[in-house]
Amino acid sequence: MDYLARNAPRIASADGFLPGARSVISLAWDYSRPQVSLQGGALLARYAAGRDYHRALGARLKKLKATLVRAGMSAEGLRFGVDAVPVLERALAGSAGLGFQAHSGGIIHPKLGPYLLLAEILTKEELPPDAPSPGSCGTCRACLDICPTGAIQAPFEVDGQLCLSYTTIEHRGPIPRELRAAQGAWIFGCDLCLEVCPYTKFSRERRQDDPDFQIHPALQTYSLLGVLELTQEAWDRDWTGIAVRRARREGLRRNAALALGNLGEESAVPALELCLEEPDAGLRSAAAWALSRLGANPRAVDAARAREEDATLQKDLAESLETWGLDS
Ligand code: B12
Fold first, then answer.
1. Whether the CB of 25 sits within 6 Å of ligand 1
2. Maximum distance among all alpha carbons in the chain?
3. 274 by DSSP, 3-state: which?
4. Bridge partners, 175 (sequence order)
5. Which residues contact 296 (CB under 8 A, 6 or more apart)?
6. Cα-to-centroid distance, 14 and ligand 1 (Å)
7. Residues marked as catalytic
8. Cβ atoms within 10 Å of 73's Cβ, excluding its own
9. Distance from the CA of 258 to the center of ligand 1, in angstroms?
10. Which end of the chain has the lower number of beta carbons within 10 A, N or C?
């Protein structure tokens, strides 16, 4: 996520995204839904279950922009964004009254709950500001206590590199050993800090009839083992138009290997052994770790260690052998 540091000076002011910006219309999309899982028990963050939200929200923002232009706003003075834009979406949404900043770092609407995706339209026009939202987390520590990697180190303070949303989606290569067991059954993002939030009592499935919200067919048809065995052809055919693509095929397979190990899925042993010969280092390392956790035949991992040319990975495989059947 180097782009955040590179764009820091631009991010600090909305002016960097739209020179001359005077106002921001902040928007939130409530994506509340029940937990999303694959056959075999793997879990995915809810926001990624339907049509890729960049596209789904992008299409809505286009329509809204057209409506604003029809209402008399200048098209040149308008710019919209969702997520991958150099603006402080949470700070803007908080100031616009869409919710309060929660201990987990996100914006929670006091009457809708925490499952909100943010977007914004920047304009050069001067609009009357809304009041910031009421509400707060009070003394609640539920999200800090549940976070399996300790990523929420203090209220409002998230160490992004420890967050499963970072390790399973953004991070390339082997996942740090100390975070592998903590990943549990998650294969794309993590919702634990949102799931335990008391404000989820306001979360309702409000978009059931929205086609963009329907669970993507890949998530309905693939098992966890199927994800581990995902070929390039199947990835390009079945996993399109879904935010899960951000993890890339190798990353998703790596995550699936760890989840299979964590779930104690012994039927995955032959497929995990085959992964020891894959070109992706993250996948090789995850497969060896999962085999070790399953306490399966160590010879395959020992052979993989012996032929490994990457010194760091060789050490990693050796550590999996040392902790055979013990890693937790
Ligand atoms: C990088 C990033 C991540 C990283 C790091 C997150 C982190 N906590 O540091 C990773 C990959 C780990 C991540 C994880 C998740 N993310 Co994220 N992420 C982003 C992204 C792209 C940039 C955020 C960033 O670092 N900006 C730069 C820093 C300097 O600014 P900042 O973090 O926003 O916060 C500063 C200021 O804004 C200010 N501030 C923050 N809030 C408020 C509120 C008020 C009122 C004020 C005055 C100030 C203020 O204080 C902060 C510190 O200086 C944003 C999209 C965006 N463009 O903002 C989405 C975004 C924050 N993520 C989002 C989501 C949904 C998630 C996940 C829930 C996804 C999941 N289920 O797996 C998790 C949540 C993990 C967690 N508890 O934080 C949503 C949050 C929606 C919401 N309701 O708040 C966003 C806004 C994307 C979107 N368009 O909806 N994310």
1. no
2. 71
3. helix
4. none
5. 266, 269, 272, 273
6. 16
7. 83
8. 18
9. 26
10. C
Q: What is the pTM of this model?
A: 0.95
Q: Per-residue confidence at 57, pLDDT binned at 50, 70, 90? A: very high
Q: Is 12 in the pocket of ligand 1 (CB under 6 A)?
A: no
Is 90 within 8 Å of 38 (Cβ atoms)? no
> Letter for the amino acid at 41?
G
CA distance 318 to 328: 16
Q: Tally Cβ neighbours within 10 Å of residue 122.
A: 23
Cα–Cα distance measured from residue 61 to residue 121, given in angstroms and rounded to the nearest whole number: 8
Axis crossing angle, helix 311-322 with helix 299-307, rounded to the nearest 10 = 160
- Chain segment 239-287, per-residue pLDDT in tens: 999 999 999 999 999 999 999 999 999 999 999 999 999 999 999 999 9
Task: Output phi, psi for 80, to 5 deg.
Answer: -115, 160
Spatial contact of 12 and 92, defined as CB atoms under 8 Å apart: no
Residue 150 CA to residue 190 CA, distance in Å, equals 13
CA distance 244 to 267: 25
- Inform me whether the pLDDT recorded for 326 exceeds 80: no
Q: Cα-Cα-Cα-Cα dihedral of 74, 77, 82, 88, to 10°?
A: -140
- What is the 8-class DSSP label of residue 232? H
Q: Please give the Cα distance from 326 to 176 (Å, whole number).
A: 17
Dihedral of the alpha carbons of 241, 287, 264, 104, in degrees to the nearest 10: -50
3-state secondary structure 139-206: CCCHHHHHCCCCCEEECCEECHHHCHHHHHHHCCCCCCHHHHHHHCCEEECCCHHHHCCHHHHHCCCC
Q: What pLDDT is attached to residue 8?
A: 83
Contact criterion met (CB below 8 Å) for 227 and 250: no
Cα 320 to ligand 1 centre (Å): 34
Candidate from 3, 44, 60, 90 with most ligand 1 atoms within 8 A of CB, to mutate: 90
Residue type, 189: G
